[in-house]
Automatic annotation (TrEMBL):
It comes from the Bacteria. This is Uncharacterized protein.
């Protein structure tokens, strides 16, 4: 696996027949998902290079039982570390005695407008916070973070693993890599609310539950899994690829799996190969006659900027140049 340059590509994903807002590809190298004390390589050193960080992230537990299992196996518990990952700009600052609620992004904009030209950002934020709310900026943000994390942990306590003999377990196990889990609708609603405040674990869990049996396999999951991916959550795009494959949106599934692979999730290579294998027996009419759907998918990926990812990770899908393929209405997606 090669490391990435700072100049990452931007993609407009076509998911279930709809073009999404452009999204910049991510590399899974964020410290938010790497446990402190992690060591890599023969020299047993802290991961420093982007390549080392890409293989150092930990999987997010989906239930308290999964946390218990890590402890029984004497493995580090990643739950509390992962719970701290927040897109601060989306947090809501609250000053109850003044009846004020304001997004951090809006607060920053107001503070910078009010500051004299040349004032450092940190100084401008603190001066504005003390003048308007009689609190330091860091205290306001810390309070907002702590409230979000506490709400998340309370909701997480309601998550449950499905029993391995249940129909729900077997249905989800056929679709997803992660262990099948359930949460009450109240918890799913809480994850959705916290997701919109920038809490990344909640973005991921909202997506996982909405995509699976517990949430009714809802297309709404797409929004939350893309949020989590934009915050470099390493498993979100893989779950989205699995969900789209289940919905028979094969092109959407391969797009998402390729971004997941290129970010550092090697398992998603299996999704790409499974989808292309399953579609190699489905034939489509093209401007050059009948062709396997898998071939059409690959050519459409190349035409939409995925050629470099295919070349790097899937050399077997790089034959000699082929005639341009045009298929009217191909990207209409799968079932909703």
């Amino acid at each position: 696996m090669t490391t990435k340059s700072a100049n990452l590509q931007e993609f407009t994903l076509t998911i279930l027949g709809k073009n999404r807002h452009p999204i910049r590809q991510k590399v899974f190298d964020s410290k938010d998902f790497i446990l402190p004390g992690t060591r890599v390589g023969v020299e047993n050193c802290e991961p420093k290079t982007r390549k080392e960080k890409m293989v150092s992230w930990v999987q997010a537990p989906l239930s308290e039982r999964q946390i218990e299992i890590t402890e029984v196996m004497e493995e580090p518990n990643p739950f509390h570390h992962l719970s701290k990952a927040i897109d601060t700009s989306q947090l809501t600052l609250s000053i109850p005695h003044k009846g004020i609620k304001i997004k951090v992004a809006d607060f920053r904009e107001e503070a910078l407008k009010a500051a004299p030209k040349g004032t450092k950002i940190g100084v401008a934020l603190d001066i504005y916070a003390k003048a308007q709310y009689d609190r330091s900026y860091s205290d306001l943000v810390s309070d907002a973070r702590n409230k979000v994390i506490a709400r998340f942990k309370a909701a997480f306590m309601e998550n449950r693993d499905y029993h391995p003999m249940s129909d729900e377990y077997h249905t989800d196990k056929d679709i997803f890599l992660h262990h099948p889990v359930w949460a009450p609708q109240s918890s799913i609603k809480e994850y959705k609310s916290l997701a919109k405040q920038g809490h990344v674990y909640s973005q991921y869990l909202a997506g996982v539950f909405l995509a699976s049996n517990a949430g009714g396999y809802k297309v709404e999951c797409v929004e939350y899994l893309l949020m989590a991916y934009e915050n470099k959550q390493p498993e979100a795009m893989r779950v989205l690829a699995e969900f789209l494959n289940f919905k028979n949106d094969y092109y959407g599934a391969v797009q998402c799996a390729l971004l997941s692979v290129d970010g550092g999730d090697d398992y998603s290579k299996k999704i790409v190969r499974v989808v292309l294998g399953n579609t190699s027996h489905q034939m489509m009419q093209t401007n050059h006659g009948i062709a396997p759907l898998s071939f059409v998918i690959i050519e459409t990926l190349r035409a939409n900027g995925f050629d470099s990812i295919l070349r790097e990770h899937f050399s077997e899908f790089n034959p000699d140049p082929q005639p341009e393929i045009r298929i009217a209405g191909f990207l209409k997606g799968g079932r909703s």
